[in-house]
Amino acid sequence: MAQYDYDLITIGAGSGGVRASRMSASFGAKVAVAEERELGGTCVNVGCIPKKLLVYASHYGEDFDDLPGYGWTVGQRSFDWAKLIENKNKEILRLNGIYRKILADAGVTLLEGHAEVIDAHTVAVDGKRITAKYILVAVGGWPAVPKFSGSEYAITSNEAFYLPSLPARVIVVGGGYIGVEFAGIFHGLGAHTTQLYRGELFLRGFDDDIRKTLADEMRKRGVDLRFMSDISKIEKSGAVLKATLTDGITLEADQILYATGRGSKTPDIGLEKAGVKLKDNGAVVVDEYSKSTVDSIYAIGDCTDRMMLTPVAIAEGMALANTLFNNQPTMPCYLNVPTAVFSTPSCGTVGLTEAEAIERGHQVDIYRSTFKPLKHTLTGRDERTMMKLVVDQTTDKVLGCHMVGADAGEITQGFAVALNCGATKAQFDMTIGIHPSAAEEFVTMRTKVAV
Ligand SMILES: Cc1cc2nc3c(=O)[nH]c(=O)nc-3n(C[C@H](O)[C@H](O)[C@H](O)COP(=O)(O)OP(=O)(O)OC[C@H]3O[C@@H](n4cnc5c(N)ncnc54)[C@H](O)[C@@H]3O)c2cc1C
Fold first, then answer.
1. Cβ of 45 below 6 Å from ligand 1
2. Which of 56, 139, 180 to probe ligand 1 with, by most ligand atoms within 8 A of CB?
């Protein structure tokens, strides 16, 4: 008789948990996954996918504005938020179904309910105990709103995806990528949008040229960006929210969205009692193979606070399945992880920022190009695209590619491959461009800018 009910029990059927579970099953393991909400986790339900759909929706407004330059005339336009949310919800339901099928087809047992870790080999799902040789914690994260007077009136990204109507005035608090993206969404859909960030410039950790260019572009579009600014209290009068800022200014809004950070969904699921060490922020402490401080308990994805991105959670899940059930101990690779910000306009980035490269002791050459995109020569829109390369002077290797402009995410993906292959600036230069495109700028920049 088997010693355990399963080889692996995964807690959380999100991006990482589903990938780890189905790959483990494909290697012959007997796997169960516990999920207390909707299948697919944050990315599918209240993250990447619905966000990108809303970003698409928000772009139509300016696309309509741009049409006359191309000879088009459109009739009266109107926007129906309820319709957008209904269609988005339908698509998410479809994706939930796909995830259910993926698990079933892989032979993974789905246990729907709240899971808690009882000990090194036991998990309780809605109180029912199940044992496994290994437990995988893939519980993801949850948005956190700081506590202050009136903070209960603020919403997070979770609620923003299900608002009954488009607010006429929105304040977005937070300078991370989620805040920036929602500011673009609400502004693009027609809401008067103010974004507050308590630091000097948003998108901390991104290249400074991305941060500055995006701030300029958002301001040109009419987003009321306020840096070194935060809310000290919120009062509610009828349906109107009054935010008092730290500098004493008051702003009225119909919704106030906090995108100031996400915490790990690890508290109160028995991890510490089972001997799993957590960081101060609740993230599970893991080694390079995603093993926690308990030999049979592993953790991947957002709840480990490594890189909170879907493809990273998936890569960690894949590596773990190989390690545990495919005789191939695999450390997830975090080299040159590309990422996009689906702001308006969008940003794409891979590799080192200029500041990081210098901090790591590289002597760098910087190539930067700022130009009016071809499309806007006829629309008259005052938009600039910024593209930048950070190059190591000694080895000629390209250390970083950074961009603000249309399709930045699409363009950056390919350059991530080049960086992972160790491409040099000379190899970029010998690559023929695609003309006319913005992407060709990455292989045609020849003039160094002063560092
Ligand atoms: C608004 C927003 C936009 C984003 N946009 C992007 C983007 O554009 N690109 C990108 O790469 N990333 C994006 N992300 C991040 C991305 O969604 C996460 O990095 C990714 O979902 C992490 O996957 P995960 O498997 O770690 O956790 P999750 O996908 O969060 O899955 C965790 C699952 O565990 C379940 N769970 C938790 N506790 C328990 C329990 N005790 N019992 C049973 N089940 C439990 C949860 O219900 C959830 O389904 C975005 C996130 C947000 C919030």
1. no
2. 139
What pLDDT was estimated at residue 51? Answer: 98
pLDDT in tens, 306-328: 999 999 999 999 999 999 999 99
Cα 304 to middle of ligand 1, angstroms: 12
Going by pLDDT thresholds of 50, 70 and 90, the confidence category of residue 2 is low
Rounded to whole angstroms, what are the CA distances from 252 to 99, 223, 236, 248, 342?
41, 15, 10, 13, 27
pLDDT of residue 390: 98
**β-pairing verdict for 169-173 and 364-371:** unpaired
The DSSP letter of residue 250 is E
Q: Is 301 in the pocket of ligand 1 (CB under 6 A)?
A: yes
Rounded distance, CA 253 to CA 366, Å?
A: 42
For atom 50 of ligand 1, which residue has the closest CA? 47
| pLDDT value of position 49 | 98
Annotated catalytic, 435?
yes
- Kindly provide the residue ranges of all beta strands, DSSP E only, lying in 50-179, ordered along the sequence: 109-112, 115-119, 122-125, 128-137, 141-143, 169-173
Handedness of CA 97, 55, 438, 442 (dihedral sign): negative
**Who's near 128: CB < 8 A, 6+ residues apart?**
111, 113
Residue 15 CA, ligand 1 centroid: distance in Å: 7
Q: Ligand 1 in contact with 332 (CB < 6 A)?
A: no
Unique residue bearing structure tokens 């004493």:
248
Which atom of ligand 1 has the smallest separation from the CA of 113? 43
How far apart are the C-alpha atoms of 169 and 122, rounded to whole Å? 49
Q: What is the pLDDT of residues 266-297, one digit of tens each?
A: 988 999 999 999 999 999 999 999 999 999 99
Ligand 1 atom closest to the Cα of residue 300 is: 26
How high is the pLDDT of residue 238?
94
Question: 141, 145, 210: which is closest to 173 by C-alpha?
Answer: 145
User: Are 416 and 338 a contacting pair, CB within 8 Å?
Assistant: yes
pLDDT digits (tens, 9 = 90+) for 368-398: 999 999 999 999 999 999 999 999 999 999 9
Checking if the pLDDT of 1 tops 70, the result is no
Q: Tell me the two tokens of residue 132.
A: 């496994």
